[in-house]
UniProtKB/TrEMBL annotation:
<dbReference type="Pfam" id="PF17944">
    <property type="entry name" value="Arg_decarbox_C"/>
</dbReference>
<feature type="domain" description="Arginine decarboxylase helical bundle">
    <location>
        <begin position="360"/>
        <end position="441"/>
    </location>
</feature>
<dbReference type="InterPro" id="IPR041128">
    <property type="entry name" value="Arg_decarbox_C"/>
</dbReference>
<dbReference type="InterPro" id="IPR000183">
    <property type="entry name" value="Orn/DAP/Arg_de-COase"/>
</dbReference>
<dbReference type="InterPro" id="IPR040634">
    <property type="entry name" value="Arg_decarb_HB"/>
</dbReference>
<dbReference type="GO" id="GO:0008295">
    <property type="term" value="P:spermidine biosynthetic process"/>
</dbReference>
<dbReference type="InterPro" id="IPR022653">
    <property type="entry name" value="De-COase2_pyr-phos_BS"/>
</dbReference>
<dbReference type="InterPro" id="IPR029066">
    <property type="entry name" value="PLP-binding_barrel"/>
</dbReference>
<keyword id="KW-0745">Spermidine biosynthesis</keyword>
<dbReference type="GO" id="GO:0006527">
    <property type="term" value="P:L-arginine catabolic process"/>
</dbReference>
<dbReference type="InterPro" id="IPR002985">
    <property type="entry name" value="Arg_decrbxlase"/>
</dbReference>
<comment type="pathway">
    <text>Amine and polyamine biosynthesis; agmatine biosynthesis; agmatine from L-arginine: step 1/1.</text>
</comment>
<feature type="domain" description="Orn/DAP/Arg decarboxylase 2 N-terminal">
    <location>
        <begin position="85"/>
        <end position="334"/>
    </location>
</feature>
<comment type="function">
    <text>Catalyzes the biosynthesis of agmatine from arginine.</text>
</comment>
<dbReference type="Pfam" id="PF17810">
    <property type="entry name" value="Arg_decarb_HB"/>
</dbReference>
<keyword id="KW-0663">Pyridoxal phosphate</keyword>
<dbReference type="GO" id="GO:0046872">
    <property type="term" value="F:metal ion binding"/>
</dbReference>
Amino acid sequence: AEVYGIRNWGAGYFDVSREGHVVITPFLDNKKVRVSIPKIIKGLRERGLDMPVLLRVENILDSQISLLHHSFRAAMDKVGYKNVFRGVYPIKVNQQEQVIEEITRHGGKYHHGLEAGSKAELIAALAMLRDPEACLICNGYKDEEFIDLGLFARKMGYNIFFVLEMPSELELILERAKALGIEPLLGARMKLAAKAGGHWTESGGDRSIFGLDTAQLVQVVDKLKSENMLSCLRLLHYHLGSQIPNIRDIRTAVLEACRVYCGLVDEGAPMGYLDLGGGLAVDYDGSHTNYVNSRNYTLDEYCADVVEAVMESLDEKGVEHPVIITESGRALVAYYSVLLFNILDTSRFEAAPLPKKLPEDTPTLIENLYIAAKSMSVRNVQESLNDAVYYRDEIRGLFRHGHVTLRQRALAENVFWHMVNQAAVLLRQLKQVPPELEDLEEAIADIYYANMSVFQSVPDSWAIGQVFPIMPVHRLDEMPSRRAILADITCDCDGKIDRFIDPHGVAKVLPVHDLKDNEEYFLGAFLVGAYQETLGDLHNLLGDTNVVSLRIREDGSYDFVREVEGDTVADVLAYVEYNPKKLHTKFRETAEKAVREGRITARERREIMRAFEDGMRGYTYFER
Ligand code: PLP
């Protein structure tokens, strides 16, 4: 557990058992329940589900929803806030039906609503949200069809808000509202001057692409006044960006928004709702700092800061406390999914032992390299490696000019890699590694080939260098003896993971165990529930993975409540416009031609066609 820092980033949902298994540890009926992931994998395998599998633990999602509501309730009770909290889940963070269904089911207890950013999301939200007290927030571009649908939903009793992202939207909304005779609930998205740190900061600040600046807000107010419809303006919204690591940025933004809110109340708008958007971060690396993969606050601190800031600034102006809405998606769903995958093979950068003696005709430079290798110690590592690089490059030059044979060059390269490996071993004895040699471990790391696609399952790891906790899910009662980077099966040079969380920050190699004969080795990528499924793509035609949802009971037993089989090869080919039937016909024609030409027999044709058909029906990942 210490090697991988699981207790730092696991948020109490994951731990390591005495038998060395990663266990899922939800808090049910006032006690911790422990469910072994390797045992879950065994159950999946028995049911015929191949790796990779995306495992969703419904209890974790429920727990995150409850925690958010309880924290806001406690913060409000503590200071005597005179209104309520209403969460809305932004569908974009993970649109899968099972996710929305679970959020609306469990969130129903708290009137948790939904945020839709497009027509498709609105349609999903209208069908999934049955609670008239929950809010449905419509952000994003809205055309006439979108607006009409939203207006009818309002008439049906939905608590649906159109948030104006651009001044031009108002005209169309007012026109349709008049035409249909339905009064909308309107919100305005403001551009904050405040800008936060983190990966996604462009959502905030004056230059953010969405929202109204103060002049545009005033124009909206004037237009509504002139149309005698200011009574529709009920909500102020902003979104500072996702994954805001620093609580100071969150507080600054709330204070700025409260000033604008009071300004709108002064103008005569009824208001009543303040929507703070997303931003609540996930502590992916468990460091509890304001580093991009972390956050320097707890959920309780977030809620307390928001509530206090709203209350203080509104009390100062004598404005009634609004319903506070947040659009946290990442923090709700990140913990809920774990990608489980197996290792298919490894490759090691290990040099053969140094020869006892060099051959008679060995060139002097190779002899020098050999002497440097023999005399390397913990005191002269850096100097010896500098010499080694010099000799290696010179030897390569001689090879190019034909003065060194292939066999001699191979000998030199082996001595060089032997030195690099030895240097890494020596450096592990030091407390402080010289900065020039920090990359040494990475240079000699093994490559573990993982049965998954980075682009499909953890796209942010490739796209923005986000670091997710990744670790073996078993054999944790043995010290890992190897250090590796992971390569996926897309055969793309970017299809690798070479940043890992360790208890001291981010490491370039992952401690792993040696593979055993006849025993599979399984790893998990944790905290991948937010954004990854949606942003994942079909690079190299590796499709959606199998997905299994788990519900754990108080006694530690569990059910696989849902299973969605991953894409077949035929599915992904159809996504890119192939017709699997046509492909079959074409290939059969080629096979028949081969029979005609005597290359294969008719019986062989049958075998080949069977392999083709099995491939079409099969999983896009490596099957056992
Ligand atoms: N609300 C809006 C308008 C967003 O654009 C986003 C995503 O960036 C969110 C909410 C979700 O934010 P978070 O990822 O911080 O939960």
